[in-house]
Write a structure and sequence with these properties.
Helix content: 25-40%
CATH architecture of the largest domain: 3-Layer(aba) Sandwich
Number of helices: 19
Number of domains: 4
CATH class of the largest domain: Alpha Beta
Oligomer: single chain
Radius of gyration: 27 Å
Structural class: alpha/beta
Strand order of the largest sheet: 9-10-8-11-12-7-13
């Protein structure tokens, strides 16, 4: 027999080997992990198919079958084959996408150096929660009428369920109820619980340990050590872990008894991989649930338009939670017009008074500003020059932590702040705009007695730091939180009663057609951080959401103040239908990059001609190609970029053209990456 093996090397599809191992002549089968020789080097591979035929020429034998890595079943192979075809990536790169590095190294399985041993991975090292309060457990399984109704609907069939619940409505209670019921019914079943951000896992893990102290569970994210990921991979794929909590990297974790998938904050663009293999964890999970006949719940307070469209088509069931679990109304919204004082100090006097009032009541305040750094632009008022990165066509952002440096947020390049213009030598340099660092500095002077904590990517570069900050917040060692979008996603801050959102309009200026949808979603999410645990006591301040804006009368702001996400989404859906944009068409982009701009332009024009040629030959009139289009930043890490966009009403026609182009995209010096169903433009 012939064994078809895939490995994690670019440009290689399937490789053929004699289906017996060299030393003991052990036969291998689909799903086996093996060691094979490729170009005189050993690689770990996966057998995806065996052919009962005599090879036309002599084949190499399999070096070793890896019995210490559990065999994957046909369903998982079907899953990676589907992902490979849908996203037009080599099968090996897909199969090994989340595969831990220790398991990729053949030396770890061969001879005296082997470190992968069955005994080492035989048990799950389950950490128990250090402190469980009995008062917390009494609330464990209380469900209100809305939540109970959703749980009943979930059990009716295995159609994907879109759980549309306002912030604080208790979506997590519904998830946990379904987990509990499933494990009661089938104690060997497995659950995959996906969240968009690594920062959400510590708090959620603590809740899982509280609610499910006896089930075996693990986290699977990129921040785990490679050896921990290897251990989790082996234990999950052997069915010894009941629940996996992870980010999109966990999508490809083999779980042979997977019966329930939960996608929390399903609208979040973080579920889409933006580099390399550009897959959507949400969309692949939908396929996987159908493939395994498993249940899947997509939860959000602000569902994506794509998911709402699937409800309209009858492909998803819509479940609603329209009231907060506490019974309290959503936070009162106050819209404040920006003044000169606001521009100078970051916030208006009225907002500062509200902040003081909430702090004096022993509550916490969250301020949302989705821009890191001190100031985003350093420009010369004399000649118009602005500081740009030497590697990218992007502005350098001023950071003032410690020494003052100008930093590129795309490639990481940095340099010391300069005092004179590089073009005209004038000292008339001006900093424009405000980031989280500058706002923190301003508030430190305006609120001298307040304990202020800034949380953004620069302050939580290690997962330990974020856990420490969350503990400080929970212990009320912080009065004012200043943060970017990382604070808007799913966190449960018990003492936050005031949320302030500033510089909202800048989020609407992005050329991406999804800009207003994302801005609205972010505001609804951050507004939901206020008053989640407020009681009905008369002595407690009413939760409040303050918006500081330039145009208080804009239609966008009016929808936000009324929490009218459904109305807003319906307006966007009408616009998308009118302009033939997703979800009413299917899009794929081909991103092209090369160090020489003229070579890139020539190649892009040639490829566009090839696309149109294939469209004409195949007579596929539903597909149109547009380009070349500029990408921001046009130059990234010393490489110029360009883009083609293909779109079609018929998904199969779009994929047909992409399959025809696959060979062309692998040739030539220009790097070409296909992105099907892109979320960023």
């Amino acid at each position: 027999m012939i064994a078809q093996v895939v490995i994690d090397l670019p440009g290689i599809e399937k490789l053929s080997y004699y289906s017996k191992t060299l030393n003991d002549l052990e036969v291998v089968f689909p799903g086996d992990w093996v060691v094979v020789e490729v170009k005189k080097k050993l690689h770990v591979g996966l057998v995806v198919e065996t052919l009962r035929e005599t090879p036309p020429y002599k084949l190499k034998g399999i070096t070793k079958r890896l019995s210490s890595i559990p065999k994957v079943d046909k369903k998982w192979i079907d899953f990676v084959i589907f992902a490979s075809r849908y996203y037009h990536r080599p099968l090996g790169q897909v199969a090994f996408n989340s595969f831990p590095s220790p398991l990729k190294n053949p030396a770890n399985f061969l001879g005296k150096q082997q470190i992968i041993d069955k005994k080492y991975f035989s048990e799950v090292s389950q950490k128990r929660p250090s402190q469980i309060k009995k008062d917390d457990v009494t609330l464990q399984w209380f469900l209100n009428k809305e939540q109970k109704r959703c749980c009943v609907r979930i059990k009716e069939n295995n159609k994907p369920k879109l759980l549309f619940g306002i912030t604080g409505s208790g979506k997590t209670r519904v998830y946990f109820s379904e987990i509990r019921d499933l494990l009661k019914e089938d104690k060997d079943s497995q659950i995959l619980y996906l969240v968009p951000e690594i920062g959400l896992t510590p708090q959620l893990k603590q809740s899982i340990e509280l609610y499910f102290p006896d089930i075996k569970h693990e986290i699977y994210t990129s921040t785990q050590t490679p050896l921990n990921r290897a251990k989790t991979w082996i234990l999950a794929s052997s069915g010894k872990i009941r629940l996996i909590l992870g980010t999109r990297i966990a999508t490809f974790l083999p779980m042979p008894a997977l019966k329930l998938i939960i996608i929390d904050e399903e609208h979040d663009s973080s579920f889409k991989q933006h580099e390399g293999f550009r897959f959507s964890a949400r969309d692949l999970s939908i396929f996987q649930a159908k493939n395994l006949n498993a249940k899947i719940i997509l939860g959000s307070a602000t569902p994506s338009l794509e998911s709402l469209a699937q409800v309209t088509k009858g492909h998803y069931d819509l479940l609603k939670l329209e009231k907060r679990a506490t019974g309290r109304p959503v936070s009162k919204v106050t819209v404040i017009k920006k003044t000169s004082f606001s521009f100078e100090n970051g916030l208006s006097e009225q907002t500062l008074d509200s902040i003081r009032k909430h702090i004096n009541a022993s509550n916490q305040v969250l301020i949302y500003l989705n821009r890191k750094g001190w100031a985003p632009v350093l420009t010369c008022t004399s000649c118009g020059w602005s500081s740009t990165c030497v590697n990218c066509s992007a502005n350098l952002v001023l950071h003032k932590n410690g020494s003052q440096i100008l930093m590129c947020h795309f490639c990481g390049y940095s340099e010391d702040r300069i005092e004179n213009c590089r073009v005209c030598n004038s000292n008339a340099l001006k900093l424009i705009g405000m980031g989280t660092e500058k706002l923190e500095e301003k508030l430190t002077h305006l609120l001298p007695n307040a304990r202020i904590l800034r949380i953004d990517r620069n302050t939580i570069q290690k997962k330990k730091q974020f856990r420490e900050y969350l503990t400080k917040i929970k212990n009320k060692e912080v009065d004012v939180l200043i943060g970017t979008q990382i604070l808007t996603k799913g966190h449960d801050f018990e003492s936050v009663t005031l949320v302030v959102a500033v510089d909202i309009e800048s989020n609407l200026k992005h050329p991406d057609f999804r800009a207003s949808e994302r801005a609205f979603q972010a505001l609804m999410q951050v507004a939901g951080r206020a008053g989640r645990h407020v009681t009905d006591s008369k002595d407690v301040l009413e939760p409040e959401f303050i918006l500081e804006v330039l145009d208080t009368d804009s239609a966008f702001i009016q929808c936000v103040t009324k929490y009218e996400y459904t109305d807003f989404a319906n307006k966007l859906i009408d616009e998308r239908r009118q302009w033939n944009l997703p979800p009413f068409t299917n899009i794929a982009i081909i991103d092209l990059s090369y160090s020489d701009q003229s070579v890139l332009k020539t190649y892009t024009d040639h490829l566009l001609g090839k696309v149109n040629h294939e469209i004409n030959i195949e007579k596929i009139k539903t597909v149109t190609a547009n380009g070349p289009l500029k990408v921001y930043p046009e130059r990234l890490k010393k490489t110029y970029r360009s883009r083609l966009i293909l779109e079609s009403k018929k998904r199969s026609d779009l994929h047909s053209i992409l399959f025809k182009l696959r060979t062309n995209l692998l040739k030539g010096p220009v790097k070409a990456v296909v992105d099907v169903d892109p979320v960023d433009f």
